[in-house]
Amino acid sequence: LLLEARSNWVRDLLSTGNSLLLRRIADRLGFVGLWAILVSIFFAFSPADWQVDHLVRVPSWPHELVGGFLSILLVFRTYQAYQRFWEGRAIWADVAGNIRSMSMVAVTVLEGRERDVVLAHLCVFPVMLKQHLRGMRSGQEILGVVEALGVRESWRARGIQQVLGSNN
């Protein structure tokens, strides 16, 4: 479990360059970084007789004022993110409950291979929904669920080959 978490962290760190948000702010981020480097070099290598430290005095009160506003903004943003997470969790719980209810109906009403295929569809639905919400598509994960239930051939006969991809 620890190795899996570590590999996810490394993968996430290496995929930072593919971030859409980073692409959107890269030019501004680069400009601010370059400006900070230039100012630092200017202060570090300016002659002592220029007395740059005394010429450029920055009062502390604007930073304190902005810090207060930023802390309140951060609290509101954190609260909104938590609310979105909680709402998503509640919707996911509804999906799981509805699938459980439909599975009970399928087990009660259907028999044999037909029941197994319906249960496989119900088991694959949350996996596909997760993949859709994350913007990914992995036939291997779906194939694992289908094979665990033993209905791979039924799925192939029904033309669900494109969902499973070329991994089979």
**Helical proportion, percent range:** over 70%
* Overall body shape: elongated
First-to-last CA distance = 27 Å
Question: What amount of the residues lies in strands?
Answer: under 5%
Averaging pLDDT over every residue, what do you get?
82
Count of individual helical segments:
8
Largest sheet: none
| Number of DSSP-assigned strands | 0
Radius of gyration: 28 Å
> Which regions contain 5 or more consecutive residues with pLDDT less than 50?
none
Q: How do the SSEs run, as a string of H and E? A: HHHHHHHH
Q: Which structural class do you get from the secondary structure elements?
A: mainly alpha
Explain this structure.
This protein is mostly helical and 168 residues long. It has 8 helices and no strands.
Give a short synopsis of this structure.
Helices cover 81% and strands 0% of the residues. The protein is mostly helical and 168 residues long.
